[in-house]
Amino acid sequence: MIQNASEANRIVVKVGTSTLAHKTGLMNIQRVEKLVKVLSDLKNAGREIILVSSGAIGVGVGKMGLKERPTDTPAKQACAAIGQCELMYCYDKYFSEYNHTVAQILLTRDIVDSPQRKENVVNTFRNLLGMGVIPVVNENDTVAVEEIEFGDNDTLSAIVGSLTDADLLVILTDIDGVYEENPRLNPAAKMIPRIPAITEEVRALAGGNGTGLGTGGMVTKLSAAQIGLEAGFPTVIMNGSRPEALYDLMDGREIGTFIG
């Protein structure tokens, strides 16, 4: 397992709804453009990039002008179908400006739980990366129900990391990293720069869900990091509001919380 992000070649970058969208649910165009530019530049430098992108339901909610995220499954699936089109249109448009090709991969848990289907997914990732394509992965929210869903894209991103033999998982979120206390309640709370293992004490630091547009929180991020540790790669949890900070991370500087 690598000990510093600068050593990573194959990187899974997970971006959450809170990073991709404004509070209105509509896409944060400036931030998405910056993220794509940085990821394109990192790829130009020789790194392999896999993007796990949340936001389909949130963007769909915003595009349809709904006041809040629906709670019933059919409505969420409808919003996902609308939002996924918008997401992939933007990723294709912005990455194309830097001469990079993207491919959409939509997964449900039953696919990776089936040995044959899992092998097909692994082969698809291998061939896409071999062709220099950037896979853009999301849960297939349009058809996913409780029995076959990952539940959150933090977990999905860690599973994608294990499927692709990733060197590093980077989770971009709306908080700088893992704190000793909730920084929203205590502004003086200290961030933990490095966590060697996910212990019960570390899990106790996690709160509940994040923003109303997403489904994850620090609990799911730490669970994802545990999946990564078991698969042999570390995880970095960092703030996604400034995608340029990925440059500092990949230069070996201390950004966010490094788990591993």
Question: SSE layout and pairings?
Answer:
Layout: E1 10-15, H1 17-20, H2 29-44, E2 48-53, H3 56-63, H4 73-96, E3 102-107, H5 109-113, H6 115-130, E4 134-139, H7 153-163, E5 168-173, E6 194-195, H8 200-203, H9 218-231, E7 235-239, H10 245-250, E8 257-259
Parallel strand pairs: 1-2, 1-5, 2-4, 3-4, 5-7, 6-8
Antiparallel strand pairs: 7-8
Name the beta content range.
15-25%
Sheet with most strands: strand arrangement: 3-4-2-1-5-7-8-6
Radius of gyration from the alpha-carbon trace, in angstroms: 17 Å
Say how many strands there are.
Answer: 8
Assign the structural class, choosing from mainly alpha, mainly beta, alpha/beta, alpha+beta, or little secondary structure: alpha/beta
| Helical residues, percent | 40-55%
Mean pLDDT: 89
Note the run of SSEs as H and E.
EHHEHHEHHEHEEHHEHE
- Counting DSSP H or I runs of 4 or more residues, the number of helices is 10
- Show unreliable segments: 208-216
The end-to-end distance, rounded to whole angstroms, is 8 Å
- Principal-axes shape call: globular
Sheet with the most strands, sense and barrel status: 8 strands, mixed
Task: Please provide a written account of the structure.
It is a single chain. The chain is of the alpha/beta class. Strands 3-4-2-1-5-7-8-6 form an 8-stranded mixed β-sheet, with helices on both faces. Helix 3 crosses helix 4 and helix 7 packs parallel to helix 9. The termini are close together. The relative contact order is 0.19.
